[in-house]
Amino acid sequence: MLVNVIGMGYIGLPTALMMASHGVNVIGTDYNKKLIEQLQTTGKVFEEKGLSELFDEARRKGIRFSDQYQKADIYIVSVPTPYLKKSRKIDPKYVIAACKSVLEICADGAILVVESTISPGTIDHCVRPLIGERRVHLAHAPERIIPGNMLQELIHNSRTIGADDPETAETVKDLYASFCKGEIVLTNIRTAEMSKVVENTFRDINIAFANELTKICHEAGMDVYEVIRIANRHPRVNILNPGPGVGGHCISVDPWFLVGDFPNLTPLIHAARNVNDSMPEYVYKRIREIMTEKDIEDFSRVGLYGLTYKEDVDDTRESPTLQLLDILRHKHADKMPLVYDPFIKTDMVQNQVHNLSDFLSNTDLVVIMVGHSELKNQPELLNGKAVLDTRNVIFTEDVYRL
Ligand SMILES: NC(=O)c1ccc[n+]([C@@H]2O[C@H](COP(=O)([O-])OP(=O)(O)OC[C@H]3O[C@@H](n4cnc5c(N)ncnc54)[C@H](O)[C@@H]3O)[C@@H](O)[C@H]2O)c1
Asked: Is 214 inside any structural domain?
């Protein structure tokens, strides 16, 4: 049996490597030729704990990479699924293009698994019509892993497989069971689509609640972290951590699919998205307050620590820091802050520095936008500086919080 994984990104690559290292015959395909060349040579494409060891193991077990789609028994499509900014609906163009390419090459009897996160009904509306009368079996196997702990979670998370018929469901389940020790729940395709989007929407709403509490507590002169710590002693309360905004390609995107498809039924989901999207602006206001208090004249003496959307990863998509920089560009284009992130080695934004001591020696106010271990484990480096810690990772008393 040959498996062709389509899309060698943050999700497709670890999945392909994991299958191959567990004895599955896998070819990873991506239309990005440069990426495929990298995979065929160095293998290093993004930072993730344990990924390079897994890569070596998968190579020993025979994984191959190609920019061409292969004649295979099972296809796993793991391509991006952004949303359309105007309608807020899913933009299915990458999924449609990948499925069309699969259908050009696959034999009858093949199984086409969409692993990308998709809004409920996407397979019925966008993929099934491409298949027409052909005997190609469809399934949806959404992914739940978290960057930073992907490989552990690939093995231990429970997962969902939606399929049209029990035989397809069982074949896909056997494939994932080659490495997944968690429970594998079988259902229909629409329920699988919906449950994945619902999981991320649940997270978004709960983060929005914590962020709203932060604003209330700041206004009322209270410590939100103490309030949350005490409230969470209630056996049925579990308030999440506030933060500078929600980034990444999942939680800040997937709830929009529901808002786009059900605009009259989603006031709560929509409001939560707006609360989370308002956080970079709120961080901007907090910085201004602290600058006034500390007599810091302009943003050129402010440093933003962290460009990624979460700690200890190199993924910057939709990151709160990028959103904050957009706000600053509109308001203070001539006096932009310094920016530093240990995981981003190339120049991505204006005034980016690549050395922590240069960054610290040229800033009077450090804004911790990401709680990378580098700084978390060396809080003494911040001695003598004004610090706004948006992630609650530095526990000295004089640190400003959200
Ligand atoms: N990144 C995450 O943490 C995460 C977690 C769970 C689910 N997901 C979902 O997984 C899916 C993939 O996300 P990702 O983060 O891996 O994306 P990504 O951008 O890292 O990777 C996608 C890859 O697909 C390739 N590609 C796009 N269209 C193609 C085509 N037609 N043929 C061949 N290759 C093609 C791109 O070149 C890219 O390398 C998305 O639906 C996302 O929502 C992501």
From this structure: no
**367 and 259 fall within a common domain:** yes
Domain range for 296 = 221-401
At 401 the three-state DSSP class reads strand
Hey, how many other C-beta atoms are within 10 angstroms of the C-beta on 232?
Answer: 12
Per-residue pLDDT of 3-16, as tens digits, reads 999 999 999 999 99
Residue located nearest, by CA, to atom 41 of ligand 1 = 116
Q: Give the pLDDT score at 198.
A: 98
Rounded distance from Cα 381 to ligand 1 centre (Å): 37
Ligand 1 pocket member 247 (CB < 6 A): no
Atom of ligand 1 nearest to the CA of 11: 16
One domain, residues 166 and 85: yes
Q: Are 356 and 340 in contact (CB under 8 A)?
A: yes
Largest CA distance in the chain: 71
Give the pLDDT score at 45. 87
Which pTM was predicted? 0.95
Which phi and psi (to 5°) does residue 34 adopt? -65, -40
250 is catalytic: yes
> Which one of 187, 210, 238 terminates a domain?
187
Q: What is the three-class DSSP state of 293?
A: helix
Query: Does any ligand 1 atom lie closer than 6 A to the CB of residue 249?
Result: yes
Question: Each residue of 330-379: pLDDT tens digit?
Answer: 998 889 999 999 999 999 999 999 999 999 999 999 999 999 999 999 99
Same domain, 29 and 108: yes
What does the pLDDT average to over 42-55?
Answer: 90
Does residue 390 contact residue 283 with C-beta atoms inside 8 Å? yes
